[in-house]
C-alpha cells in the first residue's frame, strides 16, 4: 500500500536484543496525509530500514507500507510497517526535466496596487 503526506512528528527510536540474541532497531514517525480531510498515520521503519530511510519532520514523502495485526493476551494490536520512502520533491524536477515536458505557466500577478478595492 502507499500513501503521500508530510512527516509531522518523530516519535523516537528504540533498540534492543531479541530472545534469540539478535539486535533490533525501530524508528517511529507520524505522517499527515495530503487529502481534503487529512489523516494522521503513525508508522515505523524496523531493522535495516530504520537507517536506510532517514526522515525529518517536514519531509514530504510517498510511503510504501504493510499493515499487520497481532494478538497479545486477548487484545489485537495493529502496526503500520514502512518498507520504502520516497521524497515527493524529487519526482517534480525529474518530470520537468523530461524531454518534451512543458513548464508550468508563471503565476499571474494581480493588477493594480489594491487601492481600488471596495473594502
Q: Helices and strands in order, then pairings?
A:
Elements: E1 2-17, E2 23-33, E3 40-46, H1 49-52, E4 60-72, E5 75-87, H2 91-96
Antiparallel strand pairs: 1-2, 1-4, 2-3, 4-5
Describe the structure.
- 8% of the residues lie in helices and 50% in strands.
- It has 119 residues and is mainly β.
- The chain has a domain at 2-17 and 24-87: Beta Barrel (OB fold (Dihydrolipoamide Acetyltransferase, E2P)), CATH 2.40.50.140.
- The protein has a five-stranded antiparallel beta sheet with strand order 3-2-1-4-5.
- The longest helix is centred in the last third of the chain and has 6 residues, at 91-96.
- The radius of gyration is 21 Å and the shape is elongated.
- The chain starts with a strand and ends in a 23-residue tail after the last helix.
List keywords for this structure.
5-stranded antiparallel beta sheet; mainly beta; 2 helices; OB fold (Dihydrolipoamide Acetyltransferase, E2P); 119 residues
Q: Span between N and C termini?
A: 49 Å
Looking at the structure, the CATH topology of the domain at 2-17 and 24-87 is: OB fold (Dihydrolipoamide Acetyltransferase, E2P)
Q: What structural category do the secondary elements indicate? A: mainly beta
CATH class of the domain at 2-17 and 24-87: Mainly Beta
What is the count of β-strands?
Answer: 5
Mean pLDDT: 85
CATH architecture of the domain at 2-17 and 24-87: Beta Barrel
Regions with pLDDT < 50 over 5+ consecutive residues? 91-95
Strand/helix succession: EEEHEEH
| Biggest pleated sheet | 5 strands, antiparallel
Beta-strand share of residues? over 45%
How many helices?
A: 2
Helix content: under 10%
How are the strands of the largest sheet arranged? 3-2-1-4-5
**Name given to the CATH homologous superfamily of the domain at 2-17 and 24-87:** Nucleic acid-binding proteins
Give the overall form. elongated
* Radius of gyration based on Cα positions: 21 Å
Amino acid at each position: 500500500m502507499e500513501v503521500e503526506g508530510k512527516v509531522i512528528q518523530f516519535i523516537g527510536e528504540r533498540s534492543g536484543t531479541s530472545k534469540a540474541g539478535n539486535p533490533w532497531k525501530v524508528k517511529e514517525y507520524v505522517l499527515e496525509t495530503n487529502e481534503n480531510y487529512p489523516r494522521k498515520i503513525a508508522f515505523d521503519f524496523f531493522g535495516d530500514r530504520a537507517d536506510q530511510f532517514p526522515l525529518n519532520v517536514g519531509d514530504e514523502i510517498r510511503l510504501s507500507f504493510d499493515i499487520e495485526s497481532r494478538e497479545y493476551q486477548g487484545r489485537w494490536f495493529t502496526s503500520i510497517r514502512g518498507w520504502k520512502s520516497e521524497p515527493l520533491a524529487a519526482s517534480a524536477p525529474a518530470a520537468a526535466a523530461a524531454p518534451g515536458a512543458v513548464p508550468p505557466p508563471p503565476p499571474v500577478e494581480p493588477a493594480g496596487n489594491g487601492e481600488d478595492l471596495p473594502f
